[in-house]
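Open question from group meeting: does this chain pack into something compact, or does most of it stay loose? Before anyone orders reagents, we agreed to write out a predicted structure and look at it together. Recording both the input and the output here so the notebook holds the full record.
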Amino acid sequence: MKMMDALLQKLQSYLAVAIAVICFTSCITHKKIQAAPPNAATVINNITVAKKADALDSLLENPAIKGAQVGICVADADSSNYLFQYQSDKYFIPASNMKLLTCYAAMQYLGDSLTALRYVDKGNDTIEVEPNGDPTFLISDFANQPVYQFLKQQKNILITTTNWKDNALGAGWAWDDYSEDYMAERSAMPVYGNVATFTYGKVEPAYFQDKVSNPNHIRSRFYAIKRNLGSNHFEMIPSGREMHSVQVPFFTAQTGLLAQLLTDTLHVPVTESNFILNRLPDVQRIYSQPTDSLLKIMMHRSDNFFAEQSLLMVSNELLSEMNDRKIINRLLETDFAALPQKPKWVDGSGLSRYNLITPADLMAVLLKMKNSFGMPRITAILPAANAGTLSGYYQPFSGNLFAKTGTLSNHVAISGYVTTASGKPIVFSVLVNNHVSSATAVRRAVENYLTAFIRSH
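Structure tokens returned:
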């Protein structure tokens, strides 16, 4: 019995010591947590991790954002060191922020001026032409039309589209948007931006004038236009909305359409053929517009068609064919091989919901653009605060903030450059997915967050 009593006393002593140690440790841990001020931040592996009650919490708790997925990445533009990250390695649907990758590729590979077409003089007043995907032909944005002037001087034109190796509509595009002006079909040689423009009693190109049902409705200011899927039959319908003009994409796969449109426009015989224009010394180029003039419009109004055709032009320059999948694979294996995470990249514009990329990737692309091309060229292309797609936003930073926005239903994005209050140049990317609020409310919430970040650094 005495031996058992002694053993029991020892066990009780050990237990008391253990409980004391646990309590002491708990108290120390509690004191350490409480000692941190509510707005403090901890640095782990050179990454700032935000605590409660800071600007990040204000963003995440905003009613427009609450419940959505948010990713943020900010870095010093000079040193490339991360300044802040929040879910920056997670994949998001980027919407038109995908145009940043397309813009980089175009700046890198399309030269100072756009190659509109290649041709060979075959003699007997005949030229063979291979188009290069240039979207500026007969577009109202460009008054000077050197390609039109060149082709109009010819006697006989043979044109090939054997270098076209893609589909008119991109993977993951919303099929029921096929008649919306922001989703014009892609092609080897766009004409009039691949859209038919209806203005009261007039249709351009005129080729579509007799492809319209109920044309009298267009003589009114109150009308809408429907196009049948997979055809070029248009219907005018009465509408309660007053319209000056309406643009509707036309169906580019109609047999012989390209030759017919060119013949009607140029008043020169144009024949489509299946020859292959080999890249030989006798092949000559016709240039259309300065490359950056196209890219500026593309980024300022987030032009999907310009972005799609720009990537296809890069494809034709590097691969001698127009194919999104092949040129994207090429770019991911070369120019973008060092991105922190490998994006899922499927189109040039960001229209596709199949695109997936991380905030850290977009930040890396911005840094690569800065290091490759310099800020003067970049700021001449990207919209500034309170301009383009940023109109009405970031007004205190006019002339200081340059960024690309992105919007799809339930998805909002912004990535760009700005100089902070202390004079530090930074690059940033903020992606918001799966919100159920209005896009405007989400943009304002992100604007408030970025404004607070800029002014506090």
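Observations to bring back to the group:
The domain at 44-106+301-455 is CATH 3.40.710.10 (Beta-lactamase).
Confidence is low (pLDDT under 50) at residues 17-53.
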